[in-house]
Amino acid sequence: MNKLAQFLKSGIKSLKRERYYALLNILGLGLGIFCFLLTSLYVKDELTHDKWHKNAENIYMPQRTLETPGGSMALLPAYPLGGALVEESPGVRDAVNISFAQVGKYTVKEEEFETKRLFNTTGSIFRVFDFGLELGDEEKALSQPDGVVISYELARKHFPGQNPMGELIDLEHQGTYKVTGVLKPIPGNSHLQFDFLIPIDYTKGHYINIENHWQFGMGVQYLLVEPGYDIEKLEQEASALIQKNTGKEDDFTFAFNKFSELYLSGKTSRSSGGMFGGQEKYIIIFSVVGTLMLCVASFNYINLTTSRSFARAKDFAVRKVVGASKGRLIAIQLGETFFVTFLALVVAIIGIELVLPGFNELIGKQLSLNISSDLTTLAIPAGVLVLVVFISGVYPALMGSRFNLSSILKGNLPNSKGSLVRKSLIVVQFVICTGVLASALIIRFQADYMISMDLGYNSQNIISIEMARAGMYSKKETFRTELSRSTLIEAVSSGPIPDTHSLVIIEIGEGEDMRREMFVTGNSIKGFVNIAGLELVAGSSFEDLPESALESAVILNETGVETLGLMAEEAIGQTVEGSSFRIVGVVKDFHISATKSKIKPLIISYNPDNVSNTLLRFKAGDQEKVIAFAESIWEELGATEPLKYDVIENHFDNAFKREEALISIFDGLTIMLISVAGLGLFALAVFESQIREKELCIRKVLGANYLTLLRNLNMRFVLLIGLALIISIPITQYLIGSWLDAFPYRIDSTANYFIIAGGLVMVLAIVMLSIQGVNSVRKNPAEVLRNE
Questions:
Q1: What distance in Å separates the CA atoms of residue 428 and residue 291, rounded to the nearest whole number?
Q2: SS3 for 480?
Q3: Least packed by Cβ within 10 Å: which of 115, 289, 354, 693?
């Protein structure tokens, strides 16, 4: 304890004696640790996702997949498959079906709310998974047709301080349910999150008459498999059951995906995980980002400490004279490093607590540094403390303990044997800074490029109104007729923008040459090509054809025609293989989905009976008036719900939220990195000028001007930074290239962004060096050399 007290006392004295440099070290290390902690919390959350279930490694999700040259199509397995496997396969212990999330309104105590997490399932969910009940019986909670299990959060929200068991909740389109259970809090690192669980009912809703239907599936099935059971054998058993109950072979391949791997492989069949969740590439990005930031901060500390140790050389020498061993000198230096790192860790943790709520909102997570509720979280800051002390403290301590005693006491500064190490660290720091700045610019301009891309159709001044709701589907034609009478509205139609489409498999060729291609298909009526401003390449649009010619008529995009192996002109009048579709027109390719996706083969069918939306084009500036008019017609026709509309030109805004969040993260990271590296460079310049103070004054006496002195003082730093810029280009290009490769449409060249990043870093470095350099070269030689 006495030795520890001495080390702490030494650390405190050092901080008091050199407050300026101590503050630089604490802030620099604090920023590095802050970034590393933040990214570590994210990575920990991702890597532990869904693994808290005790049977996570033995739960599997069956999936049927059809591979095509244009991509793969996944289908839900037949609904009865899970139950049949439990009965007939010795390897399946239990099974549960959980529906997709449903959005709906519900009423509690005559007050209306909305939920996006309503699910149908069965009581076996509690046997397969570890979703326990805070209140209620797991065996009986979902056995009652009118029973509902609610989340822990909803119970506290709607029944604070009360027992919610037996309370009534009215679910829109579902009926009135009685609370039969309350779930225990579900960890945030679970892709399955529920507000309501209601029993599957074969007499209504999505599951009507599907109990014994072997052709189609509903919801997602999860199987609890015996440990060690052969999954390939299970796939064969599933295929055999499908063939047995359908009487035909299945062209789709079966795959049983392990539940613990669903999230990171992106195969959950559900939207989950927040902005960056469920993608291994972002785990790598955040891991690299956090590590690089910690390395820059640690290298900065090493440079500052080793440079400053020259100024403290006499302190080391005196300690040796009074009997301090080499080991003791190392321990004292490590003690000081520990003290500085500990203070930096405190600063970082305070910063984490302040920033975490906003960061969680940005990336859609529930990250927490709550050590009291999860002791494993303590390992992260503790590990960081040990790691930083080791990285940042060992080399300066060893170097300081090796100073030559007699030379130092004669007034000579120690030789800088570690100058190569320090130069290398400066180069590494600025390689990272330049790379991150260039990456931030590339990410920003790639996002801007995709957002500003021409969609291939005129999206301005168009709104889409969903008709398959509020009892309006059967009145869609009347609704369009009434709207077209307004002088505010230029055109009315229906068609597959935005995102109102489905997929279909087309078999092309025969025999061994037969291949399956996946086409996007959507329904439309007359006027769609005109209202969307599509460019006809060949043939006619639907409005240009007589009614007799519209039966089975379709319009394809250029990619669709190419997929069929045809030219645009020769495709007109031909029938799409394996279907009754007759091609009457070909339009130029356009983006039916966000520009992050490649344009797929498209079939636009003339099918006025099955369109699901109404498109309105209006004059610029009249949007509010048009919406008000549409709402009045909507209400007059007896709609049971308020009108919902989608402004086409804003529809894809949310598609780029991930890139926008990544831009914000990299902007913050770039500022932190350049701040740390810049302050470190400034401090190094101060030390360099102190060490070379007499040399500069002698040069000044011999006639050197200010510019020559500045160049002599700072040129080595400028050359090192220039070397860093050259090294960073191929490394960053390789790393950012893998991110860019995920986009089918990319910026043409990244060279400009490396030039901009390199230029900015160099200018900032020269400014920082010049600020200190000017002060150094302006010193009066007589004041410096008078004691020589």
A1: 13
A2: helix
A3: 354
Residue 275 pLDDT class (50, 70, 90 cuts) = low
CB 440 within 8 A of CB 760: no
pLDDT value for 3? 60
For residue 600, pLDDT over 70 is answered with yes
Q: What letter does residue 292 receive in the DSSP assignment?
A: H
Cα 304 to Cα 17, 257, 660, 720, distances in angstroms: 15, 52, 36, 17
- Distance (Å, whole) CA 371 – CA 177: 39
Q: Tell me the residue type at 229.
A: Y
Q: What are phi and psi of 171, to 5 degrees?
A: -100, 120
Rounded to two decimals, the pTM is 0.76
Whether 626 contacts 616, CB under 8 Å: yes
3-class DSSP state of 777: helix
pLDDT one-digit tens code per residue, 69-127:
656 667 788 889 999 999 999 999 999 999 988 888 899 988 999 999 999 999 999 99
8 A C-beta contact, residue 589 and residue 616: no
Confidence of residue 527 (pLDDT cuts 50, 70, 90): very high
Do residues 142 and 125 touch, judged by C-beta distance below 8 A? yes
Residue of 409 and 652 predicted with greater confidence: 652
User: Cβ-count burial of 354 within 10 angstroms (0-12 exposed, 13-18 middle, 19+ buried)?
Assistant: exposed
Pairing state between β 553-557 and 582-587: parallel
Span 487-498, pLDDT tens digits: 889 999 999 887
* Length of the chain, in residues: 788
Round to whole Å and give the CA distance between 631 and 637.
10
The average pLDDT across 766-781 equals: 71
CB atoms < 10 A from the CB of 164, how many? 21
Phi and psi based region of residue 533 (left: phi greater than 0; alpha: psi -120 to 50; beta: remaining): left
Q: Distance (Å, rounded) from C-alpha 89 to C-alpha 215? A: 20
C-alpha torsion angle, residues 154, 155, 158, 164 (rounded to 10): 150
602-606 and 515-524 strand pairing:
parallel
Residue 573 DSSP SS3:
coil
